[in-house]
Amino acid sequence: xxxxxxxxxxxRRKVLGDAxxxxxxxxxxxxxxxxxxxxxxxxWGSLWARDSLPLRERSMxxxxxxxxxxxxxxxxxxxxxxxxxxxxxxxxxxTLLHVAIYAGVPKANHALKIARQTYEELGVEL
Length: 126
What we know:
The protein contains seven helices and no strands. It has helices at 3-16, 18-27, 33-47, 55-68, 75-85, 89-102, 105-122. The radius of gyration is 15 Å and the shape is globular.
C-alpha cells in the first residue's frame, strides 16, 4: 500500500480505535476494497492527518458536518471517537447548538438523541 494509506491507517486507528478498525478491515470484501482504500487515503491520510487543526477541532467539525448534512449513520461512530480526540460532551453540545442555528433544529435534535444514546452506552455521565 501507499505511504498515504499507511499514514491514513495510523490516523484512523488513533481516532476510531483498533477494535473498530480491525472489525471494519475484517468485514471488507473485494467489492468495497477500493472504497476503503480511498477513504483511508483521502479522509484519514490526507485530511485528518493534516497538522493545521488539532484532532479535537477536527472531531467537532466532523460531528457538525455529519449532523448538518443529516448523515446520522456515522454520527455515533464519531461521538465515540471523541474519547480519542479530546472533544468533551460539552464540546459536542456546543457543536450541536451551532448545527441547530445554522442547519436546523430537527437535525440537531436528532443528532442530540444519537449523542445522548452513545454517551449512555459508553457510560459517560452527562
